[in-house]
Automatic annotation (TrEMBL):
Full protein name: DUF112 domain-containing protein
Top-rank taxon: Bacteria
DUF112 domain residues: 20-442
Organism: Microbacterium nanhaiense
Transmembrane segments: 20-39, 46-69, 109-135, 147-163, 169-187, 199-223, 317-340, 360-382, 394-410, 467-490
Pfam families: TctA (PF01970)
């Protein structure tokens, strides 16, 4: 009852005219960047970071969550209509979604995706409301050793399990950790990797790095690779975006199964929605093979419904893990964690005690965002598809201007503009050489936490580092990590044998 009362208070805060406006703005921006090629919710949140510090924290995070959810709603549009997913989390949706579009059912495919994303996100929001306080209370048992184990878990999972190349994943992670330690050490006062420059005494801003790597790096990549990118024809959506009763009966079980698969991955730092969407697609394909008339390969509605529900249920639970544990499971969540830190807030049990109005208004806004996104995407999906017609030179020129203006407005330093360009070139090289970006962001966000936790644990035990493996919680995290990494290694070995 107490939870429902707090949620009711949260709705009173979220349903103010100002916060409703920020929900709408976040959902519109998220859907737009999801639809547009090469963009995504992580880039949108990174671009918005420099210009939202003047906002009230509640309004800012309500907008960020709308962008986060809206990005997944929009990602599938490009995959369905062009067979080119906007983000990796939408890859599984393209397999059957594009076949539905080619079969003249593009409008119904977009409706299937929108309803699936709504169901997955709404159920996940309900779970978050009741589980987040429990997780936050559980996290009060965490000390320095446990937080260090949690950071190591996130580092290893995002750099080895999710990425196709472990070496590149680890290289990206260590680059992020290296950037995180630049500056003056807060304990000893020693200069670290500053090269004597006073501009680096305070370190390199996370905002600058995220905007440079995710946004400017993408702009440079598109500018250099445009001539090598083969344009694909857009399937024009026709008909009404409504599903018949038989199609609803066909899709409903897949929506629910996909949601169930995606929920647990919201609290596991395994890269976000990519794994659960493929698992949901694979399950539906195996179930379809048992039917008398298999539909997969012909535009099976279940093959689109399940991944969409799985992706949004993972995102919803990820917000719970972020609020209660301070654990980012994707690049977008990592940037939002950095935003909390920029506002002087630390997700975890103290956040629920120190800023309950913000937390419960944000949780209530999840439900509002789901309804708003369904309204924006179900009847207007065909209008969103027209964003794909924006000429790339105009689109990416605007993004470049927004990058520079945002960084200069937040810092007022020309050095930060030079750093933006330098790190943007690094981001371009990482894209060109197929290095994953999420480990870099998570390494930079969680690096200070890991360093502080390691130092505090060692000091509390008089330099005895065995304290890191004496806690049951820490041992459990390391054990789960070993199982996850081991399973990943076995699956890759099997895949290589099949390829041979």
């Amino acid at each position: 009852m107490e939870t429902l009362q707090l949620l009711g208070d949260g709705f009173l805060g979220a349903l103010t005219l100002q916060n409703l406006l920020w929900v709408l703005i976040g959902c519109v921006l998220g859907t737009a960047v999801g639809v547009l090629p090469g963009l995504g919710s992580s880039m949108a949140v990174a671009l918005l970071l420099p210009v939202t510090f003047a906002l009230d924290p509640t309004a800012a995070f309500i907008m960020f969550s709308g962008v986060y959810f809206g990005g997944l709603f929009g990602d599938s549009t490009m995959g369905i209509l062009m067979n080119t997913p906007g983000q990796a989390s939408a890859i599984a949706s393209t397999f059957e979604g594009h076949k539905m579009a080619l079969d003249g059912r593009a409008a119904k495919a977009l409706a299937t995706a929108a309803i699936g994303a709504f169901i997955g996100g709404f159920i996940a929001s309900i779970c978050v409301v009741f589980l987040a306080p429990v997780l936050a209370e559980f996290s009060t048992k965490f000390g320095p050793a446990e937080f260090f184990a949690l950071a190591v878990f996130a580092f290893a999972a995002t750099s080895t399990v999710v990425t196709d190349d472990t070496v590149k994943g680890l290289a990206s992670l260590f680059l992020g950790l290296g950037i995180a330690v630049i500056g003056i050490d807060g304990v000893s006062g020693a200069q670290r990797f500053t090269m004597g420059s006073p501009f680096l005494f305070d370190g390199i801003s996370l905002v600058t790095v995220t905007v440079a790597v995710l946004a400017l790096g993408e702009v440079i990549y598109v500018a250099c690779m445009e001539r090598h990118i083969v344009g694909k024809a857009i399937v024009r959506p026709k008909g009404r975006p409504w599903l018949s009763k038989s199609e609803l009966r066909e899709a409903a079980p897949a929506w629910l199964r996909g949601t169930a698969i995606g929920l647990p991955f919201g609290v596991v730092p395994a890269g976000g929605s990519e794994i659960p969407t493929f698992l949901a697609y694979g399950l539906e394909k195996r179930l379809d093979a048992r039917r008398k008339d298999p539909q997969f390969g012909k535009g099976a509605i279940r093959g689109l419904a399940a991944p969409e529900a799985a992706g949004n249920s993972t995102t919803g639970m990820a917000m719970g893990a972020l609020l209660s544990l301070g654990l980012p499971i994707s690049a977008t969540a990592a940037i939002m964690l950095a935003a909390f830190q920029q506002y002087g807030l630390q997700p975890g049990p103290l956040l629920f005690d120190r800023a309950p109005d913000l937390v419960w208004a944000l949780l209530a806004s999840f439900f509002i965002a789901m309804v708003v996104l369904l309204i924006l995407n179900l009847p207007f999906a065909m209008l969103w598809a027209k964003l794909l017609l924006i000429p790339r030179p105009y689109l990416y020129a605007g993004i470049t201007m927004f990058c520079a203006m945002g960084i200069y407005a937040s810092s007022g330093s020309t050095f930060d503009l030079a750093m933006l360009l330098g790190v943007g070139i690094v981001g371009f090289l990482m894209r060109a050489l197929d290095f994953p970006l999420a480990p870099l962001i998570i390494g930079m966000v969680l690096g200070p936490l890991a360093e502080t936790s390691l130092r505090d644990a060692a000091m509390s035990a008089n330099g005895d580092f065995t304290v890191l493996v004496q806690s049951p919680i820490a041992l459990t995290l390391y054990g789960v990590l070993v199982v996850v990494v081991g399973a990943s290694v076995v699956n890759r070995m099997r895949a290589r044998r099949r390829a041979l």
